[in-house]
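C-alpha cells for Lipoprotein. Go.
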Amino acid sequence: MNFFKKMLLLTLLLSFMGCSKNAYVRTIEKGYSKSKEDPSVYIKDSEESIYTKKKMKYSVYENQHFLVLKEDKKTREKTLYLALKYRGDEWIYMNALDLISHETYHMNFMARKLNTAFWRDKSNLVDSVEEYIAFALKPQEIDAMKKMAESNHGEIKYYSEVDDRSVTTAITAEEIQNMKEILDLYSK
C-alpha cells in the first residue's frame, strides 16, 4: 500500500508541474499579436482578460526580464506580472530574487510559485538549463520596479530554494525601456 501512495503522490506532483508549464506557455508566451496602434506592443485578447507586453528579439542563449500587463475585461482591474527567464550551466531552483538598482528590493515568490505564478523548467541537453517564472507583483514591488526603471539600470540576483547559491543577471537598456512603457500603461 505504501508504494501506491508514493505513486499517487508522484503522479499528482507531475500533473501539477505539467499544468503549470502549460499555463506559462499559454499565458506568457503564446497567442499574442501586434497591436494596431503600436507594432512594438503585443496583445493577447482572451475571454476574460487582455494581456499586453513589449516584444523583443532574444537569442536563445540570453536571460530575459520583462513585464506583462493583464487587464480584466469586466472589472478593468490591472495586474502586473514580472516574467523572467534564467539560463545557466546548472539549475538554480529560484525561489526569491533581489531587484538591484540604486536600492535593493527583495522579492520572495516561493509561495506564489506554488499557488499563483506561472513557471516552467526546461533542460537543453547540450549545454544549459532554463528556468522561467512569471508572477503577479505586489504594490510595493511595482514601486521597486518603477524606481529601477527610472534609474535606467538594474540587475536581478536569483536565490536558490535548495542551497546557498545565487546568480546575478543584468537587465538590458532595451528591457528597461520596455518595462517603462508597460509601467506607463499600468498607471493609466
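The chain is about 35% helix and 40% strand.
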